[in-house]
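Q: My labmate handed me this sequence with no annotations at all. I'd like to see what the chain might look like in three dimensions before we decide whether it's worth expressing. Could you predict it?
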Amino acid sequence: MFLLFFFLIHGYGSVSGFVTDASNGEKLAYANVYLENTEYGGATNEKGYYIIQNIPSGDYRIMYSYIGYSLKTLHIQIQPDQNTTMNIELSPEVIEMEEINVSAERLRFEKEVEVSHVTFTPREIKSVPGLFEKDLIKTLQLMPGIVAMHDLSNKLYVRGGSPDENLVLLDGITVYNPSTHLFGLFSTFDPDAIGDAELYAGGFPAKFGDRLSSVLDVATKEGNSKKLAGNVSIGLVTSKLMFEGPIPKGSFLITGRRTYFDALVWAYAKITSDTISLPYYFYDGMAKINFNPTFNDRFTFAGLGGLDIITFETQTDTASKEKIDLEWGNRGTSLRWRRVFNPRFYGEIIGSWSNFLTHFRYQDYEDPTSNLHFYEEIIDYTMKSDFNYFSSETHTTDFGFDAKHLRIEYNLDVTEQRLVEQREHTNLYTVYLQDKWSVIPHILSLQAGLRVIYSTLGERKSVDPRLGLKYHITPNMAFNCSVGKYSQYLITINSQESYFSIFDFWRIIDTLHATPTSYHVIAGIERWLDDNTRFTVEPYYKHYYNLLLPSDNAMMFSAPSESLKAGEGYSTGIDVFFKKSFKDVFGWVSYSLCFTKRKIGNQYYSPRYDRRHNLNIVLGYTLPASIPVINKSVLNIRWYLATGLPYAEDLARYRYRHFYSRNDYWYTDYEWFVLNGPRDARRLPISHRLDMHLEKDFVLFGLNGSWYIDVINVYDKENILFHTWDYDEDPPEKTEYTLLPIPVPSIGVSFKF
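A: Here is what I predict for the chain of 753 residues:
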């Protein structure tokens, strides 16, 4: 009776809004928002949006805090049955950026129900030593559960899954080949333009789908809405330029990057009258425009584009004889509408176009009848929506739908006549519903989801349920658990076990094959030892059905879809992650134990990317002021230790004697034959490597800048990639191949204006 009387007198209201950085307008995810001396409070979500509901009407002091930013306290009056909108900007303070990231991770730990999730900031991406340039995917390879095929590999193998099982998004654009630059050495993401990146290594929620293993969701920076700014970077291999600044009711960002080894080699050849050339280069760029017509609406246009180009001609004494052109690249655009329909109802609608294309042209100047042109591309048109309904402080519902049109085209022209012309297409329609409920506030939370996919090709349907649980054993320790089913309607037909792969050939699952599916079961403990120290242990099990796999002798090149073999498999293991940040020291340790098997018929085997043990140690240290020249610079080191990958070892050889006749005479000849062992019978030796990155800020002519030095493979470890046998020798001669036989240094400089 008293509570009813209290409600009638006071009534209840709410407060909501966005929290952003006052210096550039970037969102602040998981910032603290609370009413002073009350139990009412919350945190912003990944978009910087917050809502505090069921507040008794009256006068309060509302406080906004985020580590690394000044505390902001304002007076607020809550009116009964009304929402008060407060969009707040927080000003940065001078504090270590790694502590800012830890704060956001801590708030996410308290609020979200999720497993196998890691976030990255530009600071962390740039702190990891890189070969010629920093790279997002190279940083991701230092996380538990993720392995690299070799020292130069830039593909993601997540918990025993192949790279085509990963969904990669950039501002809502599906990126089908993110690791194509320089034959897989660089990814298509410019680290200077990345705002944040999230990786779900497994158990991802119903919002995401259409892949079997993981999700990488990358968002570029919003663009500085306060002032015009820019950044110029010059390195050994590439140079980059970025501009960002305000526009009326919004902001923009644009970046561009290009290699110039080809230009340097061309200039050297002109000066020395040499014939040396390097017929390869790549370029790419990203752009983003935000427009805010009202406080509740934002429109965002984003785009990316890039191309790798190889062109060379063979010469005679008088003229060119033949020419080869090879081009491949990613392109895409997206348009996003974000709206706060009412304080409890938040949503986004995205339309996107994505395209990956490949061109190969051969031109014979002496014999035009030999000319050929091979062309292949994948085209993706998607309309997607995501909505969030905050029914109460303890109950949130997410739902949405998307419609996707996929088209794949490939042609082969010989002497201007089309010999092969193929078109594949399908429409995928998806709806999902996800409900998060805090059963016992601050102790037990459940998250249940359902994703339903319908494909018009074969009129197939997949129903994928998901369930997550978080139980806070103590305020600083939680038990996490997730189970779910995942489906995929698109695969690559080239082997994902190849040591080198320039690009992937995608195909839609045809009506002759069942839809590939996987089941994830993940459980783990997450413990915060203090506000800056996180420790997680996650065992997992993943089972695959209806996998489409190339045969074991198609390891290096593409295989036609009809030759793919149906199989299944599993992956199981345990991931351990420890992260610590001090004022001048930060770093993390990740360890993975993984067992991966594939099965074709009745035979199990380990795929080539099955790495049993994988250990990474990353450490960053700000050098003291007492050290001359490089004082206050940041030294980052990375060391890894990993067991070898499986390979097929030849078991024996024998000489085969055969007879043949010619001109009524009989001859005899001998030929060597090799008996091959199982594809996973042996393993390469253990590999390990130490990398170093040193970076120091400076001021030159009033411009803020920094220089860096990277050294890859500091102590000259020769990690074996593969070996071959020369059976023409007696006894046979074994040759081992490595990629980084010596330390490789690189330098660079950047300026901000």
